[in-house]
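Technical annex, item 7. During the second reporting period the consortium partners agreed on a shared format for inverse folding records so that results from different sites could be compared directly. Each record opens with the tokenized structure and is followed by the designed sequence. A conforming record, contributed by the partner at site C, is shown below for reference.
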């Protein structure tokens, strides 16, 4: 379960505006990456995003180059989920691998507005707000495990017992 506010965008939000390409080859901490999240699309985002927030967008979210930073910077900014009509295939996989939920829910995209407060129940497949309850396919147990662990690497470490301190 997650609770936060909505940041809303349109179609074809590409990886260059999620995480500007000019920073791609600079070594940054997650906190530094978060300060540049969406800066070319929404200058208010980096300063205003917080834990549990949700990005809502149209179709083809994350199109463009395959850049893990485009998912990592949103996660570092506190975003818990991206809700869209559709996702670029590579972005979808990168987001899950990094522990950022990606959800397809046309009704939520049509109804939610910037600033709305939402609760996302990943297990039940629901997004709840004052505008209604919107359903998406509940996430499989393996994906829920990856999200709860904080990403595929930590999930794998846990499954292999490598996270135990001796």
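Designed sequence (site C submission):
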């Amino acid at each position: 379960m997650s609770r936060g506010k909505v940041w809303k965008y349109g179609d074809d939000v590409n990886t260059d505006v999620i995480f500007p390409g000019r920073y791609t080859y600079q070594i940054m901490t997650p906190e530094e990456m978060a300060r540049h999240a969406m800066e070319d699309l929404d200058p208010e985002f980096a300063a205003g995003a917080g834990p549990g927030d949700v990005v809502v967008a149209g179709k083809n979210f994350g199109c463009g180059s395959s850049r893990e930073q485009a998912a990592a910077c949103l996660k570092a900014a506190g975003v818990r989920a991206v809700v869209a009509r559709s996702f670029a295939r590579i972005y979808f996989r990168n987001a899950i691998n990094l522990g950022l939920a990606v959800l397809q829910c046309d009704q939520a995209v049509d109804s939610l507005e910037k600033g709305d407060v939402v609760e996302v129940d990943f297990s039940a497949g629901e997004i709840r707000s004052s505008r209604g309850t919107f359903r998406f396919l509940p996430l499989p147990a393996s994906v829920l495990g990856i999200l709860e662990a904080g990403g595929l690497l930590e999930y794998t470490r846990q499954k292999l017992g490598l996270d135990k301190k001796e």
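The chain has eight helices and seven strands. The longest strand covers residues 2-8. All partners now use this format for quarterly exchanges.
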